[in-house]
From TrEMBL:
UniProtKB keywords: GTP-binding, Hydrolase, Membrane, Mitochondrion, Mitochondrion inner membrane, Nucleotide-binding, Protein biosynthesis
Gene Ontology cellular-component terms listed: mitochondrial inner membrane; mitochondrial matrix
Function: Promotes mitochondrial protein synthesis. May act as a fidelity factor of the translation reaction, by catalyzing a one-codon backward translocation of tRNAs on improperly translocated ribosomes. Binds to mitochondrial ribosomes in a GTP-dependent manner.
Topology class, membrane: Peripheral membrane protein
Location of the protein in the cell: Mitochondrion inner membrane
Species, as recorded: Trichoplusia ni
Enzyme Commission (EC) number: 3.6.5.n1
Gene transcribed to yield this protein: LOC113492169
EC primary class: hydrolase
Name of the molecule in the record: Translation factor GUF1 homolog, mitochondrial
Reaction it catalyzes: GTP + H2O = GDP + phosphate + H(+)
Gene Ontology molecular functions: GTP binding; GTPase activity; mitochondrial ribosome binding
Amino acid sequence: MVRLINNIKSLFFTNSSRYARIITRRLNSSDASGQNIDVKKIRNFSIVAHVDHGKSTLADRLLEITGTIKPGAENAQVLDQLQVERERGITVKAVTASLNYTYNNETYLLNLIDTPGHVDFSNEVVRSITACQGVIMLVDANEGIQAQTVAVYSLAKKNNLLIIPTLNKVDLPRADPAKVKSQLHSLFKIEPDSVMSISAKRGWGVKELLEAVITRIPPPSVDTKGHFRAHVIDTWHDKYRGVLCLIYIHSGKVQVGQAVKWKSDLKPHTVKFLAMLRPSEDPVEEAVAGQVVMVGCGPKAGGKVGDQLLAKEVGDDDEGSSAPPVKHMVYAGIFPADQSQHPQLSDSIKKLALNDSAVTVTPDSSPALGQGWRIGFLGLLHLEVFTQRLLQEYKAEAILTAPSVPYKVKIKGAKAIKQYKGDEVIVTNPLLLPDVKNIEEYYEPFVIGTIITPVEYIGAVTTLCHDRRGTPLPSNAVDDNMTMLQYVLPLSEVVIDFHDTLKSITSGFASFDYQDYGFHPSALVRMDILLNGILVDELSTIVHTSRLEYNARRLTEKLKEMIPRQMVQVAIQAVVGGKVLARETLKAYRKDVTAKLYGGDVTRKKKLLKQQAEGKKKMRSVANIRIPRNTFIDVLKR
């Protein structure tokens, strides 16, 4: 009995501070509920920029000015909540924070979305701006316009968003605001007088920028009187509450206890959780059109990104917005280190895929690795971050196979068409490539790459693009010192190490971004890797014929370096259609079996050596070649 009483006391005191914080937030934010919000005083905006131009630092200053957090080093990068974001110093997830700010004696609700800047996470930016009416386009006053700056500007213009051009880091000695303003005018026709200048680190000009958000960005154009309708921006999994969704409300209002349905299944559900993110959860009873809020319908109910949450009365045939389809650039196999861990890894992947809607997961199997999954990613960094999050957030260790890009083949013959359910087949796994006899034509994915580089590196960049089978497009001068080059490049030549090589040859000054350009005919073949005559499925790749010999030599040489020496000799071969293009031999460990001999007839020595040779021959026939788990991804890096 005494132990029970002590446990109850411990539980109460552990949770009392949490409940006190929730009650305090509710009392201090009486205008946070939907019924007290005037839609004309809502501003939804995102911060968009190239990598490392100061988006997260600016978000911290905005949170401080609005009183959401206290100033201090311990509150740096508040919106970068993932461990991988803090370790790598990059933003991976777009995060929302609803802020209250008083301007001219009027209280405004500002829904801020801090977005990633790397091209691999551009899908987060695309989804974020669907809930915005304007963006702060941040440009580093030292570096000037970068490739991703061009991409986010085009994206904002395409979605008819108001753009507030802003120069950051103007306090640094190398800053040249006049030069960067000239670049903005040259490329985007932005008038220099409309460009704001700030130092997010020091807080200079941030208050004026916040007021510009209120005065320049229009309120959301929504229907407050209609039926409730919202679309899902993001989803994640909670251990106790199930799937939670971040939604943007297009019309009507939503309340706790209200009956709703998902457009994808039309099954009725009840709203059980409703909160604003500040950025921690602030529970509310009601939210209205124009707001960005978190909603949950219980452990057995959940939506997906791009789905719509509707009032029960809304008809099934009503139209609404939906998320644009995701185009995956890289596919890789993920397998458990041990098949006994398959259920745990499966559960972890499903939960992480909720929080990262840019991935696609399909079951896969391998003779060497067992049951696993084939997962589509937006790029190699996306792949690395996904597997790192699996390990850090779910303690799930996985084996990666070599990443590859999707290809398309045209099938010939009526029988083949019937077998493959169509005359064109998308191939995401080299092992699933149809028989060469059934293939009429191969198609390779291409991208339009945008490179902004100093003029002194144009020669090196041009050589790199030509080496990667690039076709030039018309270029533009950014200013006297910077040039914007565009090339049509094969995706397979871009996703692995193009960005790293570009940074290396330009001393880090060039920036790169790419956009999908579709599939185009190409001369392709499948190249296999054999270890002692045994096919290693996970290392099979689809290669352009012009790169066959180079790729074969590079793969075999790198495998020789990366595979640990075995007790038997290992022959590493690159094979195409039965023809060996390259071979490397990994020497075996050699034990001196004659070391114990100190004399006697030479036949004793020959006998021991013969026994050793016969033992190695037998071992070679049954040996399991041990390949390090990192080999599958590292081996494709040049």
